[in-house]
TrEMBL record:
Bias-annotated ranges (Basic and acidic residues): 73-83
Family to which the UniProt record says this protein belongs: Belongs to the sulfotransferase 2 family.
Species of origin: Electrophorus voltai
Enzyme Commission number(s) of this protein: 2.8.2.-
Annotated protein name in UniProt: Carbohydrate sulfotransferase
Amino acid sequence: MAPRKQGGDGGARSSVLGFRAAATKASVRRHSALLPSVLTFAVIVASGGLLLMIEKGMLSNVETPPPLSNGRTLDHRSPHPDPDVDAESEILREIRNRTIRAMCRQKSMPHSVWALSPLQRKTLLQHVLVNDKHHFLYCYVPKVACSNWKRVLKVLSGTLANVDTKVKMDHHADLVFLADFSPEEVQHRLQHYFKFMFVREPMARLLSAYRNKFGEIEAYQRKYGVEIVRRYRKGYAKNAKLAGDDVTFTEFVRYLLDEDPERMNEHWMPVYNLCQPCAMEFDFIGSYERLESDAAYVLERIGAPENIRFPERQTWYKPVTKETLHYYLCSVPQKLLRELLPKYILDFSFFSYPLPNITTEYCRH
């Protein structure tokens, strides 16, 4: 089956997010109004975390049912697992699973792929990769190790010799997308295949996309950088000689505020919009922060040959450290960050990431 070439800017305006471009005062008020719900969610997660600690045996020896993954988190590919780290991962995964189940039970959430709007469904199906041999679906999220997962899929399908092969990654060739199938074929795979995805702290993912696309990729500088500078830098609206290679992080944030989350480029589109966790009902949601152990579990779960391991990060990779994220977030006016957070509030809440500390006191340090 010939893979279909995918685009990264798909989506629809009728998202469950209900956001519009933050170009008016009214939209800013709507965004600000969501912040109390964030505080409520934090309380829920905190209390749920305490309950979970009790259930997990940290405060007693009571055994509890397995998390949504229904299996171990480590296997032969991680030869020396740390029991403390393993227990912490189980707790965090269980909190995430319970949070998702609770939020997806709400009537306003889509409970199947077919309940999505046409453009929402198009975006989702274009981001779900299929492996029929091992019976799994993987919803890829840019800037969450998706290039390495695509390498794994190509090795599994026999189109790449091994995960360490030195070749420029083609993100569409030799890959099969769920969008390539008929509705009946899609439904069959949704019902019978193992479904997984990986998530990342939302602001770290945004910063990774910013540094990569505007600092290294000329095509993004020309397509997005030039327009961002013209739109948000005073005196540059009619400048015809812009390269777009010097976009500041603040200018990038201003650009995001004016974008419809469902029509964003995939590298900064909210994870919720890309993978629709309520509609997909994933069997496993791994995290970038625990990539090694979570990837090892998935490889075991899908029955990958033992000689296939998850690739190591490339030598040129620039990690987003806590210090780096602190520096960039604190370089942006607090007002803009407070307006930005509602755009990604479902990523924070669904995947149990705490909101970033952007107080003046924090940024002084």
